[in-house]
Design a protein that fits this description.
Length: 155
Amino acid sequence: MPIIFARVDDRLIHGQIVQAWLPELNVDEVLIPFSKGNEARLNRGLLRLSLPYEYELTILNSSAAARHANESNRRIFLLMGSLQETADLIKDGLQITSLNIGGMHFKDGAQKLAENVFLDNEDKCFLKLIRDLGIRVETRAVPNSPSLSVDGVLK
C-alpha cells in the first residue's frame, strides 16, 4: 500500500509537517481528502505554496482520494483535517493500519488529550469506529516525540 503515514491535523500543511514528518518519512506525495461540503475551507493555492516543490500535492474528494491511494505507486502522506474525513475515507474503501493525530484544536465541550489535541463527543465516536476496525491510533506532534495512545479517553 502506498500510504506511508496517515495523520489528522486541522492545520493541514504547516512547519511540523514540512520540517519534521516529510523528510523523516521519505514520501513523494501529500494527499489531502475532503468530505462533502468541506472543500470551501481548502485554499489549494496556499496549500501548494506551503509545501516544498519536491512533493506532489493532490486534493480530492473522499471517494476519489480512496481510489487514488489504492491505485497509486507513489509513497503517500495522507493528511486529513478531521476525524470525520478519516471515517469517510475508510467508508469509501481506504485501508490504513495506523493513524496519527497531530493537532485538533480546542472547541467547546472538548476534552484535552495532548498539548494540541482536544476531542469532543463526536470526535470520540469517530475514534471508536476507527479503533474498532483494528486501526492503531496515537497522537504525536513530531517523529521523535513520545507516542500517546488515545485508548484512555475512549473508555
